[in-house]
Amino acid sequence: MTLVAANVSGDVLLEARHPAIRIVTVGAAAELADAMKREALGADVVVMAAAVADYRPVEVSERKLTKEGGGVPPIELAENEDIVAALASTRRPGQFVVGFAAETPEDDAELLARARRKQQRKGVDLLVVNAVGWARGFESAENAVHILGPDGVDAGAASGSKRLVAAAIWDAIARER
Q: Does 156 reside within a domain?
């Protein structure tokens, strides 16, 4: 098993250390894309749980941007590659691709509608979606997700500790694969 870890703190990686797990660390989204394309070649199941930014600055300043410069400088953005969509579109026969989506919907109906559109657009076999916001999803020990199987069919839901949610996701992968 290979874990490609992008911007993951050392203490989290220490918990992931296991003789059966090879860890590949990367930084920027482009590095993650390269590593995932390379590592996915031999994988039976690809789980793309990273929250990769949709955009990045075109130019990165070597120096601090100061107020002395007069006004807020324009920041031009470029779109990052959609890594999971690229992996899904180039997968080999029998390979199972799982994507994740963090959404900010008004309600559960909107959450699931967005998730189904995203699943179809990206071409993943299974999509795990959760609502995020100031008080949920990130920076919390608890999580709640919906799992969509092939063709957007409800494949389950889970809530509780992140470990419990992860186990439910692996169970759904085993059922759907």
A: yes
For 95-116, write each residue's pLDDT tens digit. Answer: 999 999 988 888 888 989 999 9
| Spatial contact of 35 and 24, defined as CB atoms under 8 Å apart | yes
CATH of the domain at 128: 3.40.50.10300
**pLDDT by residue (tens digit) across 52-80?**
888 989 998 888 888 887 778 889 999 99
Give the residue numbers spanning the domain of 166. 99-177
103 in any annotated domain = yes
DSSP calls for 70-109: SSPPP--EEEPP-HHHHHHHTPPTT-EEEEEEEE--SSHH
Domain count along the chain: 1
- Yes or no: say if 13 and 25 are a contact pair by the CB < 8 Å rule: yes
